[in-house]
Specification:
It contains nine helices and eight strands. The protein is α/β, with parallel strands linked by helices. The chain has a single domain, classed as Aldolase class I (TIM Barrel, Alpha-Beta Barrel). It has an eight-stranded parallel β-barrel, surrounded by five helices.
């Protein structure tokens, strides 16, 4: 598993920053998973080409494709991450096999419990805080939702917090017993992505000691 995931959104990058370069710096500064999430690219050939480039840039980090099992299989990614409108976890498992990571985005306790029952290896839970990227999913859940989820009998898969996570509020997320965090804007919009990543990484390492 992973504790610090950079979820890509090339449209948020500052002028002059390419996606591959940003990913490479993020991994160099502590990210241990990269999720390719470029939902505006619908053309399979184009997305496949980008996936190959970003997998190379991700290097030693886990490489996950958002929503597209076909792309994940084609580039031999480490896994796929599913949204509510994606195929089911069971369907993804049939496509990718038993060894690949399969995660799901969840926006409620009910979603999370259902994801585990389906066989998800982990979940993203959020948005925990307000963020434009996740605004359409409703009011922020707050970190207390993680504690509530982990108190549900039988729930045991890793919970990755997402949504508006900054270096300032990341400690709160981790104190809530989240297994890790996922960041989009905090890295993508940074003027110095490597430095921004290092700020998060320092907090995660400190928490894990």
């Amino acid at each position: 598993m992973f504790k610090f995931c950079f979820v890509t959104d090339r449209k948020q990058l500052k002028k002059g920053w390419g996606l591959a370069r940003t990913v490479s710096l993020a991994v160099k500064n502590g990210v241990d998973a990269v999720m390719l999430r470029e939902k505006d690219i619908q053309e399979t050939t184009r997305l496949l080409e980008l996936a190959g480039k970003i997998k190379k840039a991700a290097g030693k980090a886990r490489f996950i494709i958002n929503g597209r099992c076909d792309i994940a299989r084609a580039v031999d990614a480490d896994g796929v991450h599913l949204a509510a409108n994606s195929v089911t976890v069971r369907q993804a498992r049939k496509i990718l096999g038993k060894t690949k990571l399969i995660g799901r985005s969840c926006h409620s306790l009910k979603d999370a419990v259902s994801a585990q029952k389906e066989g998800a290896d982990y979940i993203f839970l959020g948005p925990l805080f307000y963020t434009e990227t996740k605004a359409r999913y409703g009011k922020p859940l707050g970190c207390a939702v993680i504690n509530k989820l982990l108190k549900i009998r039988g729930f045991k898969i890793p919970v990755i917090g997402i949504g508006g996570i900054t270096p300032e509020n990341a400690p709160e997320v981790l104190r809530s017993r989240a297994f890790g965090i996922a960041v989009i804007s905090g890295i993508s919009k940074a003027g110095a992505p490597g430095k921004a990543t290092a700020s998060y990484s320092k907090i995660i390492k400190k928490r894990c000691l």
